[in-house]
Amino acid sequence: EDKVVQSPLSLVVHEGDTVTLNCSYEVTNFRSLLWYKQEKKAPTFLFMLTSSGIEKKSGRLSSILDKKELFSILNITATQTGDSAIYLCAVEARGGDKIIFGKGTRLHILP
Amino acid sequence: DAGVTQSPTHLIKTRGQQVTLRCSPKSGHDTVSWYQQALGQGPQFIFQYYEEEERQRGNFPDRFSGHQFPNYSSELNVNALLLGDSALYLCASSLGMGGGTQYFGPGTRLLVL
């Protein structure tokens, strides 16, 4: 059965810290891995990863995919209180647009 | 450029009732997917509509049904509501069946009493 596992499930750090969020997956016919940030309701898109070893960056956020070991990490450097959110990892399988989500990591940044 | 919109934002129903949730996709998108997100969980895929047909379906009972209209908007219907149906229902739109990035709407929070 296809699954996506995120760790940790929750994390509390102080402003300025660096955090690493983990996502491992098992899916047949992998197409891409996606990271979303969910603050109140709508998840907002962060990254789409399809190739191993190529880091994607957006400001203080970066992510990388390892297709051999079937995992991805999301790094946030110099965290700010506005980074507090649930970070969702999802994997998209070929043959359709079904996306399987993990349970998310709830990140709380203390001022 | 209008993003994904959903209505209503909140809804309270009682067990056994039926509910209809609505979604308008982002401008230019033709594919709509529906997800159920229970408290503390990630979104779970319900089904996807493209060209007015259900193309993919997750592990949800037949009580969950949907429809897509010629203007690409979509409805999610849930019959015989159960307490466990209480959740945030998210709609996501994308372009085609080729794996384009999905953009999510703000969701409808359903509470079943």
- Measure the end-to-end span of chain B: 37 Å
Instruction: Give the end-to-end Cα distance of chain A, rounded to a whole number of Å.
Output: 41 Å
CATH class of chain B: Mainly Beta
- Order of SSEs of chain A: EEEEEEEEEEE
Task: Give me the number of helical elements of chain B.
Answer: 0
Q: Write the element-wise H/E pattern of chain B from the N-terminal end onward.
A: EEEEEEEEEEE
Q: What's the domain count of chain B?
A: 1
* Most residues in contact, chain pair and counts: A-B, 26 and 28 residues
Describe the main β-sheet of chain A briefly.
Answer: 6 strands, mixed
In helices, the fraction of residues of chain B equals under 10%
What CATH calls the topology of chain A is Immunoglobulin-like
Class from secondary-structure proportions of chain B: mainly beta
- Tally the helices of chain A: 0
Mean pLDDT reading of chain A: 92
**Count of all domains of chain A:** 1
The CATH top-level class label of chain A: Mainly Beta
CATH topology of chain B: Immunoglobulin-like
The number of E-state strands of chain A comes to 11
- Give the name of the CATH architecture of chain B: Sandwich
What is the CATH architecture assignment of chain A?
A: Sandwich
Which percent range describes the beta-strand content of chain B?
over 45%
Walk me through this protein's architecture:
The complex is a heterodimer of chains A (111) and B (113). By secondary structure, chain A is mainly beta. Chain A has one domain: Immunoglobulin-like (Sandwich). Chain A contains no helices and 11 strands. Chain A has strands at 3-7, 10-14, 19-26, 30-38, 44-49, 56-58, 61-66, 71-76, 85-93, 99-101, 105-110. In chain A, the strands form 2 sheets. In chain A, strands 2, 4, 5, 9, 10 and 11 form a 6-stranded mixed sheet that branches. Chain A has a 5-stranded antiparallel sheet with strand order 1-3-8-7-6, with no helix packed on it. Chain A is globular, with a radius of gyration of 13 Å. The model of chain A has no long low-confidence stretch (mean pLDDT 92). Chain B is an all-beta fold and 113 residues long. In chain B, strands 2, 4, 5, 6, 9, 10 and 11 form a 7-stranded mixed sheet that branches. A 4-stranded antiparallel sheet of chain B has the order 1-3-8-7, with no helix packed on it. The radius of gyration of chain B is 13 Å and the shape is globular. Chain B has strands at 5-7, 10-13, 19-24, 31-37, 44-50, 53-57, 64-68, 74-78, 87-94, 103-104, 108-112. Chain B has one domain: Immunoglobulins (Immunoglobulin-like), CATH 2.60.40. Helix content of chain B is 0%, strand content 50%. The chains are: A mainly beta (111), B mainly beta (113). The A-B interface holds A 4, 6, 31-32, 34, 36, 40-45, 48, 88, 90, 92, 94, 96-104 and B 4, 31, 33, 35, 40-45, 48, 55-56, 58, 88, 90, 94, 97, 99-107, 109.
